[in-house]
Amino acid sequence: MTQSIYKTPTGEAEMHAIYDQKLAKLNLPYESITLDTSFGHTHVLQFGPPAAPPLVLLHGGNSINPLNLGWLKPLLTRYRVYAPDTIGHPGKSAPTRISPRDDSYGRWLVELLDALGLEQTAIMGGSYGAGILLKTAVTAPNRISKAILFIPSGIVSIPMKTMGSMLWGLAAYKIAPSPDRLKRIMQPMFLDNPIDPEVEQITEAVFRLTIIETAMPKNVTQAELADFHAPTLVIAAGDDRLFPATAVTNRAPELFPNLVAAETIPGASHYLAPRYHAELNERCLAFLEMDQ
């Protein structure tokens, strides 16, 4: 039997309760459905007018969907948004991990698009979710009408110094959990910005209740994306220590045949502070509404 990411059934229930609390905090109407895929059941949140253009939103790894959706509320009312809980990560989809190193996540998302009846759609992914978007671009390039990748994995690797520091911090935290050690692990993602108490609460729960995913989606190659011609927007965070902006924006033109822009939000870290959310949404809306 495949191991669950949750350490105990009680922990899974606690994580779901936190999920529901953060979802209610969005204060937006939504629908909740669960669909079957060959990788396991997948829970999907749906927002916005049913007749509006579709947009699939893919959230970050080792986190919960409602947290990332809070960054993107303007999109949730302008588009028919489908926001799946990433399988094998905290949320209400199957808690069984699949590999981010092969094409599994691309095949999972294609199966999900089939189940949703979406022949072609715009897709937006942040951090780990951007890596899943890229897996889909390789697996089924014609299923994506437009692509937005922000603070993206899958383009460049986390610098060894940053990765080593975070893994060492995680090992120390496992031995002796404490609020100070948790903050030290999280600090590279916030830098000089205050650590959001809500993010700290969720991260503490994820560390305590689940088995952390430490592998990131494998970087795509130019050859793998040769058949991917959807208009693409890449948005990096200027002070992102996980996926440095200069490395991301330098490599993007080499990868994407139809790159519209590779932009940077100056001063932003990997976890976008609330003061950057409006800028992120403005850039995304302008791209999505642009005729190609």
Helix share bin: 40-55%
CATH class of the largest domain: Alpha Beta
Tally of extended strands? 8
Name the shape in a single word: globular
> Kindly, what is the distance between the CA atoms of the first and last residues, rounded to a whole number of angstroms?
47 Å
What name goes with the CATH superfamily of the largest domain? Alpha/Beta hydrolase fold, catalytic domain
Count of domains: 2
Structural class: alpha/beta
- What is the residue-averaged pLDDT? 95
- Poorly predicted runs are none
Total number of helical segments? 10
Fold-level CATH name of the largest domain: Rossmann fold
Largest sheet at a glance?
8 strands, mixed
Structure, described:
This protein is α/β, with parallel strands linked by helices and 292 residues long. The protein has 2 domains: 9-158 and 213-288, 3-Layer(aba) Sandwich (Rossmann fold); 160-209, no CATH class. The chain is 40% helix and 16% strand. The protein has 10 helices and 8 strands. An 8-stranded mixed β-sheet has the order 1-2-4-3-5-6-7-8, sandwiched between helices. A hairpin with a 6-residue loop joins strand 1 (31-35) and strand 2 (42-47). Helix 4 packs across helix 5 and helix 6 runs antiparallel to helix 7 (179-190). The longest helix has 17 residues, at 9-25.
